Amino acid sequence: MSIAEKNKVKFETKTEYYEVKVHPQTNRLYHISLSKEAVKNFLEAVHKAGTSVEHLEYTPYARLLMASYLLDQLGEEFGELIRGIVHDRDSGGFTLGLEGVSQDTDDYVILSTAISYLLGAPNQDAMSGKYYARFSVKDTDGSDSYLRQAYRLFTLHTDGTFVDEPTDWLIMMKMVEENARGGESRLLHLDDWSELDKYASHPLANHKFTYKAPKSKNVDQEIERVTFFNYNNKPGICYIDQFAYPETIEKAKYLHDLSNSMENDEHVIELELPVGDLVVVNNIFWLHGRAAFEKDPNLNRELLRQRGHFN
Ligand SMILES: [Fe+2]
Q: pTM, whole model, 2 decimals?
């Protein structure tokens, strides 16, 4: 059976409150449409309880209540459904959004928090000092990594390379988008990468590379990471070009060739993500990056991210 056929039978479903379908852009992901009514009722319950984003930032238990309000609207099995998708090797990801019910970015934070706590729990984001981070890409930038540099390709990588806690999954949500052409999220499922075997069975696949974060990440730590490891009897990957410190020319070439091979793979997906939608991917067998934007002095795009672990 093809991946498309397999994924169709695995998680496609329809209830009164939501519908899960294989994503129109790629067979590897699902798209979950929530009913407008369910989103409206969810946000009403949150607002009625007087929950603000600030309260969520200061009070971890309040974030779990967001998950509970969402289950109240969608049904208890919704949590198992999305965890099932993110664990599933044939997929490992989905998109979902507010269906245009609200344009308030605080509501975006709230929905992403509910999803995050249904998946597990988010890690503290050292860059923002919160459980989530919002970051803008604009025409000019003076930062020390490619995260906010609009006109460069941000190469495929996994998150959490330079921290010593597990980073099992990643949420990216589109908060704002103005005058943006290009800049799509680039995604690659590890099993779609044509040269996976070549690099995963290479003698350097299990070499412990040193990773160090630049200053803006607020992580003052060095960590050693192997690039490929066993994950439920399939390869998992931990890789980012910018923060690895290879000791030899040979090792540098391995990292460079691996990165080039992924970037040029025909299976890289350039995902269209509308404002108010989020994408969740398993961070062990999905790589993500960003296409370059076209030059525009008024470019303004903001994303929210949460990285976390399963419970
Ligand atoms: Fe990333």
A: 0.95
Q: Give me ligand 1 centre to Cα 247, in Å.
A: 24
Tokens of 141: 């930038």
CA–centroid distance, residue 118 to ligand 1 (Å): 21
Count of the separate structural domains present in the chain = 1
Give the model confidence (pLDDT) of 145-193 as tens digits. 777 788 989 999 999 988 889 999 999 999 999 999 999 999 999 999 9
Q: How far apart, in whole angstroms, are the C-alpha atoms of residue 306 and residue 304?
A: 7
User: 15 lies in which domain range?
Assistant: 3-191+264-309
Residue 188 CA to ligand 1 center (angstroms) comes to: 13
CA 242 – ligand 1 centroid, Å? 11
Q: Which CATH number characterizes residue 181's domain?
A: 3.60.130.10
C-alpha to C-alpha distances, 233 to 89, 186, 195, nearest whole angstrom: 11, 26, 18
- Assigned domain for 91 exists: yes
